Fold this protein.
Amino acid sequence: MSAAAATVTSSTTGGCEDRPVLRERGQHSVFCGLTGVVWLHRKIQDAFFLVVGSRTCAHLLQSAAGVMIFAEPRFGTAIIDDRDLAGLADANDELDRVVTQLLERRPDIKLLFLVGSCPSEVIKLDLSRAALRLNRQFAPGVRVLSYSGSGIETTFTQGEDACLASMVPVLPQTDASQLLVVGALADVVEDQFARLFAAMGIANVRFLPPRNSGDLPPVGAATQYLLAQPFLADTARALEQRGATRIAAPFPLGVEGTTLWLQAAADAFGIDPTRVRAATDMPRERGKRALANYRDRLAGKRMFLFPDSQLEIPLARFVSRELGMQVIEAGTPYLHRAHMADELALLPAGIQVSEGQDVERQLDRCRDARPDITVCGLGLANPLEAEGLTTKWSIELLFTPVQGYDQAGDLAELFARPLVRRTRLAV
């Protein structure tokens, strides 16, 4: 995954015209998109994610999810083995056999995702055609969809984007006015947002992905959708092809981000600002009190964010504006200017935004800056720790509920914790 190094500086558009963006193209460090299965299988409770891949894929999921060998998780791997590689078996016949065995053993499965990976033998398989074939065999009891979780030239959160985008074509049609919240959220966060929207007066609110495949949200020309995650470009495009309209907003990280996110929805549905304040005053104050516990500890600390999850720009906005931290660089794998316009407009001056990666040059900038905390992928964390830098794994921000008022303190704690650990180790 390397290319000739190239670094250029350009200016962005969409509310952030004056902010220079460092665009880099070179060797980069990425994590596998299959990782999205780890949080998605917990969300859709009657779905199963069947990864078509190698033993390495199976080991990745087993270790990342921390699932005990005798547990019954809602994911597994159809392993390409020596018999398949030697051409002694028809790959499609083998896949059909594995799916049949799986569904016979697990009658609770109502939605089956065939998830492609990066081995060349898997890339040669047409999983979309396999999904259509298996749908004919197992419908209506089981719906079969497919998407790619390959880690080639992608970042790991794009696994969720590909999964949700694969669901959009099968969503029911509706002409009703509604709000659709898009992005996998922990159930506790989803419940909190549902209560807030109801208190604000937005009655018809649905979530994608749903907790149950029998509750797929409808979509149509009167649907307005609000992104809860910043890495859902393909899903957003698919929804707009179905007629839905995006509500522009920052993302619901921290008290400020959550307030602006909720306010954007309220404005789109013509809700009285007085009613919005009445619904949000108490949780907003709780969030502020929670952040106050960490602000003194984090204010003035310097942070460097490597491009990994696409959460980097909203995180930079949160830690700089609400915790008083100094962000040296906020790198993002891809900069979707329309989706990020509201976030970029809120970033304090002096933060270097970078898009893409030339990992060696970025490592040099990080080493020169010697930040107090570095947010990066697992592949860079251990080497940087060995060099004396304090790190936070960016993937933890996906495994942990961090959106909303009541999670603002938890999000701040994720950055305070490694600094506390470093202090204790020093003693």
